[in-house]
Each structure stands twice: as structure tokens, then as C-alpha cells.
Amino acid sequence: MPLPHSLSALPWTALVTVLAILFYFYTGVRVGRARRKFGIAAPAVTGDPDFERVFRVQMNTLEWMPVFLPLLWLCAAYQGDAGAAVLGLVWIGGRILYMIRYSEAAAKRGPGFGIQAAACVALLIGALVGIARLMLFSA
Amino acid sequence: MPLPHSLSALPWTALVTVLAILFYFYTGVRVGRARRKFGIAAPAVTGDPDFERVFRVQMNTLEWMPVFLPLLWLCAAYQGDAGAAVLGLVWIGGRILYMIRYSEAAAKRGPGFGIQAAACVALLIGALVGIARLMLFSA
Amino acid sequence: MPLPHSLSALPWTALVTVLAILFYFYTGVRVGRARRKFGIAAPAVTGDPDFERVFRVQMNTLEWMPVFLPLLWLCAAYQGDAGAAVLGLVWIGGRILYMIRYSEAAAKRGPGFGIQAAACVALLIGALVGIARLMLFSA
Questions:
Q1: What is the interface size between B and C, counted as CB pairs within 8 Å?
Q2: Does any CB of chain B come closer than 8 Å to the CB of residue C36?
Q3: Does the pLDDT value for residue A8 go beyond 80?
Q4: Which of A41, A112, B47, C36 lies at 20 to 30 Å from A10 by C-alpha?
């Protein structure tokens, strides 16, 4: 059976990780900007629905980081660099769509959310297939 | 001395990671359900104590993910796959108890919280012992 | 070219990871203490600006954990253990300053925030240089 890949020899997955972190960081920059625009001074995080939606985009992205990043790396370790990296780009794309639409209206957040969730399901399947293969064939 | 294990050859730890992510994801699904049940539309996250407790279960699990996951993998890398995976299952068990009890009343959240915290302390000790051994014997 | 380092043979980076987790855990302990001091019972997270600042220190540290930890390990994998570990210590130092000053007044949170952000930028550059080198020279 093919051995799992060394985690430090997966440059495309590493690059997608950096891109995901930069995108996530940008959702935080938008919160800072929205604080000034809507006059919500720290530490408050409520007071204006337009601000709260921008804040929830950052929070929801934060909530998904510990789902996305471990699944990305598990999938990469077991299924290879390129496939995991492409699914990671799909996740970032879904997240960008979610950010744009949710900032407009809460009701518009569905499609982007679905795309990024589907990317995570695909990464999950890749990880589970790899784990099962490792358990069955390395005994 | 025994070399640290390659992170990509730890299938039980990888499986427990996936289970922990699925459990954490489920705490988010419960927030969506509680939004509908108690009539708290996004982006609001306050307004009803019954909703807020369900929301806090997800948030507290999120807060512990960057404690649990790195310690799980450090312990696995230095102490081996099986021990770390068992401690990871204890953590998930404590988290499930915490979720069930906290959803009933804030005062009931203690025991589950204690179990998952103890699992993290054990993972921390495993990681620190491994780090010390690596520093002392590989010089 | 130098091969990336095996992630499980980076003891100083592992130690800094444990220290960062312990510091982050401590920001949560302070929230528990502030709950009692200012009389904010769970699940509430608002109601007193002095409490809210202590809570936001924990939340902001949580928000930065998925930025800091992956960049720390990517930088360590590509640039070596010692450099990444030193930058990780700078990050923790900036975070401690941020915690102390933000707890006093929201306006004082700037310098600590800047130091920890600069450490993350340095880790990011280290990671990107390593990724680029791996892509260019291993083809």
C-alpha cells in the first residue's frame, strides 16, 4: 500500500493553509472596519445588525477553522497534496461567497455556506478512506 | 531512545480527530436547531437563556479545540498512537456529558467539564514528557 | 536543497506550542474569575465593560490561535526548530502585554497586539519562503 505522505512535504496544502489563514485574517480586518463605520467600539460586539453580520462572518469562519484545517491535512497526508489543495481552494471560494452574501443579508448566506461545507465533507471522506486503508493494510 | 512517531502514521489518533470534529460540528447543528426552536434569528446570539446555553456549549467546545487537538497530536507523536487516542476518546466522552448537562442547566456543567479538562492535562503531561526526552537524549 | 524537517522532531516548537496553549488557557481562567468578580453568571458574556474586556482578551487570543499555530509549525517545518520557536516566544510575549493592557483599558491594547501580529507576519514569511523553495527545487 502507498505510505502516508510526510506532512512537511505537502507544499500545495501548506500554501492553501496560508491562503485560508490570510482569508480568515481578512474577515477580522473587516470587523475592525465595520466597528468604525457603524460606531461599535470594542469590547462591544452587538448594537447594529449590519455590524453583527460582519462580525458573525468572522466568527463563523473561526468556528470552521478547526474543522477545515485538520481535515485538510489528514486528507493531504493520506490522499496526496494536489487533491487536498484543490478541495481547500473550493473551501476558500465558498467562504468568500459566504462573506460577500452574508454581509448583504443573513438570508443570502446559504450557497457559500453549502459549498464550503461540501468541501469539508469531501476532505472528511478522503481522510476516513485513508485512515481505513492504513488500519487494514498495515496490520 | 525511541524516535518520535511520524504524524501521518497515527491512524487511531487521526480517527479520534475526525470523531472530535464530527462531535464539534454537531454542537453547531444544535445551535441551528435551537435558533428555530427559541426564535433567535441570525446574527443574534442572545435573547433566551435556553438558547444561550446551547450556543455556549458550541462556543466552549470551539474554545477547547486549539487546546485539545495540538496536545492530542503532540502526545501521539511522542507517546504513540493508542494511548493518545484513548485519552482523546475520554475527552469526547467528557464533552458529550458537558453538552447534555449544560443544555439542561448551567449549574450542571461541572462533571463533564472536569473529565475533558483532565483528559487534556493527561495529554499535556504526555507531550511534555516526550518533549523533555527528545531534548535530553537527542543532543 | 535542505529537506523539510519532520514535524515530530521539533521539540522547541512543540514546547512553545504547549506554552501558547497554557497561556491561552490562562486567559480563560481569568474569564471565570472575572465572572465571579463582576457577577456575570454563565451563559451571559455581556453586562459590564470590565468583564467584557477580560472576555474579549480570551476571544481575541482564540481568534488568533488558528493563525498562529499553523504558521508556527509551517515555519518550523521549512526553516527549522529554533527560529520558529523564538518567534513563537515573541508572539506569547506580545499576547501577555495585550492581555495586561486590554484588561486596564480598550485603548491600551495596541502595542501588544502589534507585537504578536508582527511575530505572525514573520512566521508567515518563513512559511512562504519555505513553500516556494520546496516547489522550485523539488520538481
A1: 65
A2: no
A3: no
A4: A112
